[in-house]
Each structure stands twice: as C-alpha cells, then as structure tokens.
Amino acid sequence: MGNNKKSLVSTLKSLPKAALAALGTAVIGALVAYFAPGALDRLTGEDRLQVRLETNPATIDTFTGSSHYALVPRGQRVSGNPGEGCAGFYPWISDFGGVPAGETNFRVIAQGGGDETLIGGIRARVIERNPPLSGTGFLCPGEAGLKVRPVALDLDEPNPTGQVVEYVGAEVVEKSKGVSFTVSEDETEVFDISATTEECYCEWILELVTTQDGDQEIISLPEGGSPLETTAWPASEDTPSGTQVTRPYYLWDAFGLSWSISRGSQSQPADATELPELSTFTPRVRGGALFHP
Hints:
Elements: H1 2-14, H2 17-35, H3 39-44, E1 50-54, E2 68-73, H4 89-94, E3 99-100, E4 103-111, E5 117-130, E6 135-140, E7 151-154, E8 163-168, E9 171-175, E10 181-183, E11 188-196, E12 201-212, E13 215-221, E14 228-231, E15 237-239, E16 242-244, E17 249-253, E18 258-263, E19 266-270
Parallel strand pairs: 6-17, 7-11
Antiparallel strand pairs: 1-4, 2-3, 2-6, 4-11, 5-10, 5-12, 7-8, 8-9, 12-13, 12-14, 15-16, 17-18, 18-19
C-alpha cells in the first residue's frame, strides 16, 4: 500500500503544471456538480423569487380605463401638458413634484425561481404619515369609469394589509382577509394593487412576505429607490347636479389636447403655457374616496 502511495505521488510530481491545473479543475468541477447542483443558482439569485414593479397605471390594462388623479404641492409652478391620452400623465406631473392623489395604482410581477415560493402576505410599511398635501389638483379622465382592483391596501389603517377584492361591476362582492398564493419555478404571477387614502400624505414601501424552503424573507419594493407616495383628494359632495368635486382642479382633455378648470358642474378654458395654482386641497378640505366620472 505504501509503495502505491509513493508511486501515485511520484506520478503526480512528474506531470506538467498545466496538466495538474487541469486535473484540479476537473476534480473541483465534479465535486461541485455532485454535491451542489444549485450552487450557481444560489450565487446568482436565480433560485429565488424575482419581483419588479410597473408604476405607470395609465399603461397597465387593469387601470387604463380609470381616471388618474394627482396633486402638485403648493408653491410649484406648472406649465405644458402630458400629451395625447393619459400615458404621459404621471411622468409629466412628477417633473413638477406631483403625487398620485386618492390612490396609487401599480402592477407587481413575480417570477418564480428554484423551489416553490409562498407569498403569504402583502402589506404597506408607512415611512412617513403626514396631513394631506395642500396644492393644485390635476385629473386625466378615463373612458370606462371604475376598474377592478384585485388587491387593495388602505393606507389609513394602522397596519395596511393587502386584501384580494372581487367585483361585480363596480360593487364589491367579496373581500378576503389577506393575500396567499404560490409561485413555482419559471412561473410568472401578475397582480395589480390599489393603495388608497382619504386622510394622509403617506410615503410608504410595499412589502411581500415570502417563504421558500422554510426560510421567510421580506421583499421590499421599490428596491433602493424612492418610496411610493399617495396623498388625499377632495371628497365629492352632493349637489343639485349630482355627486361632484366642488373644489377647483385642472381637467385634461386627452383628445382635444387642452386644459380646463373644473369646479362642480362648471368649467372654463385654461392657458397651458402657465397653469396658476388652484386651492384644490387645503388644510380645511376633507379628503374622500375618488369619484370616477
């Protein structure tokens, strides 16, 4: 046995260095392939759930028929317009510091990786909760009124938790206690979320509670970016002409490409070269659920 060991050592010593390096690489590769077939996936993260956001609701089919509301804080000068349709509304208004008003709508896309992943909850972690912003309101109206919001978050709750909502027309017929579903490897799950407020200007992070292989992980979105924002919109009021928002705001004609100032049943043209501030929301105004014309 001792002679065999010496013979093996002598043989290895006699091999060129390049051959020894190749032999070592082959041995290591075989060991990795045998003992850790998922090691590369774990290093690259491909064995974990991958999640991304789409944050422009005017380009998401669930929300394209809905009206889009925003509030620009007092003191900000606004001019120009978002272009044809509503697809450019939020990118345009954000250049002036505008914030989604009444609700923030977006899409979450979850791509499975590795073993099956359970998404056992969706929640909002509110970073800052302040009174609603005071400022000027802007509205880009939809074509089809209220759309279905599969997952709803109420930011006015102490611990906002996502609930799956089912509708018949515009009426809620069922609301679950929470969100729970699984995503398998190479499976894509898409769900749309509406986060609403009537009482605050909230900056917040979306959190997904996930479990894979018995390990729980909280996925926070957006990753490393600015938090999501939502502020209240004025409550609608009953008037002789019906339920309306009686506070003044700018209404965009997405096809005539013109602004008007709307207040209840009255409206007047506005000059797009400069849009003066309006008192859409002030500290004395009450927030409310959105009215979808």
